[in-house]
Design brief:
The complex is a heterodimer of chains A (610) and B (365). Chain A has 610 residues and is mainly α. Helix content of chain A is 60%, strand content 2%. Chain A is built from 17 helices and four strands. In chain A, the strands form two sheets. A two-stranded antiparallel ribbon of chain A has the order 1-2. In chain A, strand 3 and strand 4 form a beta hairpin. In chain A, helix 3 packs antiparallel against helix 17, helix 5 packs across helix 15 and helix 15 packs antiparallel against helix 16. The longest helix of chain A has 37 residues. By secondary structure, chain B is α+β, with helices and mostly antiparallel strands. Chain B is built from eight helices and ten strands. A five-stranded mixed sheet of chain B has the order 3-2-1-5-8, with no helix packed on it. Chain B has a five-stranded mixed sheet with strand order 4-10-9-6-7. The chains are: A mainly alpha (610), B alpha+beta (365). The interface between A and B is large, with 134 and 133 residues. Chain A: It holds the Pfam family COX1. Chain A: InterPro entries: Cyt_c_oxase-like_su1_dom, Cyt_c_oxase-like_su1_sf, Cyt_C_Oxase_1, Cyt_c_Oxase_su1_BS. Chain A: Belongs to the heme-copper respiratory oxidase family.
Amino acid sequence: MNEHTHHNTQSAADTHGALHVDHHHGNGHDHGHHKETFISKYIFSMDHKTIAKQFLITGMLWAIVGGLFSVLFRLQLAYPDESFPILETFFGNWAKGGQIQPEFYYALITMHGTVLVFFVLTGGLSGTFANLLIPLQVGARDMASPFMNMLSYWFFFIASVVMFSSLFVQTGPASGGWTSYPPLSALGQASVGSKIGMDLWIVSMALFVVSSLLGGLNYIATILNMRTKGMSMTRLPLTIWALFFTAILGVLSFPVLFSGFILLLFDRHLGTSFYLSDIVVAGQVLPNEGGSAVLYQHLFWFLGHPEVYIIILPAMGLVSEVMSVNSRKPIFGYMAMVGSIFAITILAFLVWAHHMFVSGLNPFLGAFFVLLTLLIAIPSAIKVFNWITTLWRGNLRFTPGMMFSIGFVSLFISGGLTGIWLGNSTLDIHLHDTYFVIAHFHIVMGVSAFFGMFAGVYHWFPKMFGRYLNNTLGYIHFWVTLAGAYLIFWPMHYQGMAGVPRRYLDFRLWSSFNHFNDLNIFITIVSIIVFAVQLLFVFNFFYSMFKGRKVRSLNPWGSASLEWTTPINPGHGNWPGEIPEVHRWAYDYSKDGRDFIPQTEPLGPNETKH
Amino acid sequence: MSISWIVVAVILGFLIIFQIAKASEYVSILRGEEKTRKENNRINAFLLLAFLILGLIGVVWCHEALKDKVLGEAASNHGERIDSMLMITLWITGAVFVLTQVLLFWFAYKYQEKEGRKAFYYPHNNKLELIWTVIPAITLTILVGFGLYYWFQITGEAPKGAQEVEVWGKQFNWEFRYPGKDGQFGKRYYKDINEATANPLGQNWNDPANHDDIYTTGEVHVVVNKPVKFIIGAKDVIHDVGLVHFRMKMDAVPGIPTTMWFTPKFTTRQMKEKYGPDFNYEISCDQMCGKGHFSMRGVVIVETQEEYNAWIATKQPQYLAAKGGAAPAAAPAAPAAQPGGTNMKPVQSADSAAAAAQPTAMLNR
């Protein structure tokens, strides 16, 4: 990994120096000089930083909605026989007599999943940090196509509007689970949620895929083509590597999902039989024969599994960066980290059928998916050990961003290890579609990804808004969320081992599953507290945006990477003068007795290359 | 109203926390930000260590509190295999869990920022990285090895002489078909399904193999210590035959038959003696199937061969019900069967269509 060439004798010191002199806020670069209206600056903006904020804020609003849904259905799980009249006030017939109706319950869980997986942890996470960090960290004035980038956000916005509007149609939103398996999702007779709500769901998701592709192609093009002078691929911060592979995953797998949705739409409205065969529903014999319901599952999970890496890789990248900066140490095993991300990307495409071990899949085929699935634990393990070694003999600063990074690693370990359980088809027979699965994926890609996202938000908030988030609120947010996440999801493993099925709204009918009442109440109470603390974070976010403590130094965390060489409030174009030249990797911390050496500093005469 | 009071309390709590947070920010500026930062650092380092210790205690405590609520001994041969796979995996992943969490939080505590400490510039070490590539690889090979060994035993062909039963999922209950004395299931076609003519599975009455097939709903009877093979189908949407006590699970997919087999080890009566009179081998639907999904319950009755023989002798073939012979074995919603209904049309009365759409008035309760 020492092959970086540093070909420079010509001094970039002029530009470098110039940057530090240039403290005036606002637009240094000429992009900024043409007149900007409110609309072009804040709404139809083509500045990647503004688009990043748009993604982030939209994602946060969705997170509140999705989180609120989980509070509602947790209420039902904890108190199935109690009545909450306030629910009837707000939701009318959906909560008749103050009790959540089955259709409403299933709509809630479906929307919770869809919203959090796609709109928050894909759109909100990748959309925010790919947009914010790629140009800033590779040294570009903006994305390869700022216009496409703007379209990417606005497609996301329209997808959001369509999805949100589906909450208000008379028959309710989609309610077949976030995976929307046909025939349930294909037949309006089978479920009210499969009527117009399902169409809106498909349309919204299709728009979302368009947004994701526009964004992803742009990210790839920018990373490959628009790196500043000296920024070889092996000098990129790990955030960029992670976002790069995330974009590749998305670009290659989202179209498959898209095709799956189109076929579903055909089955719904054009009388085709891609997924339908031998069906008698609600007393009606359907003519469709020869389709395969399992085909949809293959198409869905061909995205669906890479999707979890689309969610977790950016979080890994953010955590690597934040952890290195605050350990005052280089990230341990940079090339192994890149290699692991690459391995995960490849393997992500080869494991999808582990979601289908009990779908009637040929057991022989299942065996390959077991092998490939457990293989993915190896790069994951490498990453974990490398993070731990990064902490070893560091000089750790526990900023809120750093706290969330450490929390991320803890959660990723806990959730990752249970992946080894579920990836093993033998255990999956028993654990499939139980609370064990819920516990596993919420810890490993739900809460973990949120922790990565929070680490990113706390760390780069000063770059986004020129102000700090309130630290005390940050620590409260961290500790309650970490403890809460474990209190909520750890006991669910036991429910799962007891075989308690997911997507049940009432266990009173079942002698096998009805003995977890106290636990269900406990989990619900904790989740309400955790949800409230997230609102505290949202408040901190918006309050600090306008009233937070101002950032007064260019590089508040003492970070070596390029984004901190821009002015405190960079204008469109990022650097007022020339884009700085890069001479080293982004992780020269505590090297040769110096706290850190910025990427822009030329190598010393006796310095080892990195 | 209590909820509004809770909301008020929460908002007040928010305001208080916010004021404290804001005040602490001002105090920190007054005292010197660097000093406050270092103090925060110490507090959080301590909390990380405390979290590790409390967390590990919590893990043990949680285990003690919940271990008796997890299922008892597996009630099938395959269940034993799954349980031993579970224990192997638990020990391996448990060890890794403790090791890595301890290292993570201990390092975080130990290497907190200190006056005069210099971080160690340590960008990589190929030997170390090789070690933690190879060790997980070996461990996972072991897990894959055991896993696939059990997997092929569980999913392999059912032994010869296994009892065969068809299991049908529909919104929102379970139906079963036994092959009768000839040991053969008669032909069926989904377009022949008609509740009104007492033909809920679409059996073709021209096939003599159908004439002794027995149809039941809600409960399926199997024989203890005798392998049983379920041939699984679905009539409307995807369901899943979940048998927690046997540790078995298999999707029911419309148009694509699936199978599972296992050997039950204990009769229902033995289990009731062990776990109380409420015990039942329940069939839970484990694949989201619509609004009644959570109530799609069935029961497996495991009994001795004699008990089974006595029970099956009381059942009449569905053929007789469809031909208007004896009372229908099941399908109480079906009106009297029409004579000569072999060429029935796939039409149903509006009533029974509506009945089918109901969430099946809480089965078996």
